[in-house]
Give the backbone structure.
Amino acid sequence: MGRRYYCTARCLAMENAIYALVDCNNFYASCERVFNPALKHKPIVILSNNDGCVIARSNEAKAIGIPMGLPYFQCKTLIEQSHTHVFSSNYTLYGDMSSRIMSLLSAFTPEYEIYSIDEAFLKLDSLAIQDHLVYASKIQQHILKSTGIPVSVGIGPTKTLAKVANYIAKKKTLLGLFEIHAANVEEMLASLAVEDIWGIGNNLGKRLRQMHIHSALDFKQASPVKMRKQFSVVVEKIVHELNSLSCLGLNEIEPKQSITSSRSFGIKVTELARLKEAIAYHSTIACTKMRKQHSFARGIYVFIKTSKHNEKQPYYRNAITVTFESPLNDTGLIIQQALQAIEKIFCPHLSYHKAGVMLLDLIDASLLQPDLFSPSPNRVILMEALDKINAKFQKGALFYAAEGIQKKWQMKRGKKSSDFTTNWKELAIAYAK
DNA sequence: TCTGGGGTCCTAGGACCC
DNA sequence: TCTGGGGTCCTAGGACCC
């Protein structure tokens, strides 16, 4: 008996849907430029946490040939020779710039989805607009004028085609605006490699090429049923989307089901005491995020690992999941659980590279069944006060002693720019000539 | 010396149930 | 000899995204 497939991709019965994808150009590099105009037309790269890898580049840096994702030490010579400006990532700044942009975008349509730190989908079909590209141009100018960040806009009848349009807007147009419609869709897809479609990575791309599907147009013409059998419902949906059949709607912002905080250390860590500080610190970060979305965790996952690249010692990684007796959102209680857990997986005489926690199985506070072990009202007030104080002053104004005072293991960010928009002491300074 | 962090969704397969 | 069919729940792992 062959396997039966019960469900096919459910498509949204939407006639004439119009999606616009607004994507900031080289977002991190652009943020740095806003506060340092001398960087205009200069090559810029931004490094990952701990100044590890290149994670963002300006167009000039791309042109020089500095690759994405490469460890910094491997391209340091090229970066120095080409006088490329280097920044550590400054998520406080990028996050704040992002929320300003998203807030501006929300004025252009009631139906939108914040997809990532630098992208948003806007649904335009319910608006009385004559020309989508004219509207997109207004959006573009407004964002640039209000924040200094350049954006590109791609428009299409599905989210996947809007993504394609945005790709074309960035690569092949001068203004950074492009619309895909029935008359030009095949021509555009013919010139696009299958891996460049949203949702098709290197792995699926390789397998598709083995099936003689090389371009996005080949993929559009593939049988959805076959794609589902060979791959999954996700891949089937992409085929439908390329055929202008909308399968992906706007996602509402839903509370996270799990929240992770983890970092590799700025220095090698061998002592249990230091690891405990880091675990307490990550517990605090994750708990703060969790309370912000009004959730409780039913458990926590605690992990530590050594570096894969260190040949002087065996690669060790271990993790432990603790299930709470009743759901928790109290930083103090969660730190206690996490610290007990790490003692069980700590292995002495190793130099650790990374540690972190994941709060699991989150539920909304309103769904909580009160029981004997529910948090006492005093603890609830304490957590509220803690969050308010840290929000008002700055992250870490109040912290648990378990996190340690010096936190020497914290990541390196030797080339970070100032927190221009969120810290009174670091405001940008204008000089008169 | 130095190799990121934080998510989501889907599938397969095992355990278990009637 | 011959060991169904249909379902749920859970977990691990793969693949993808930015």
Observations:
- Chain A has three domains: 24-99+117-155, 182-242, 259-403.
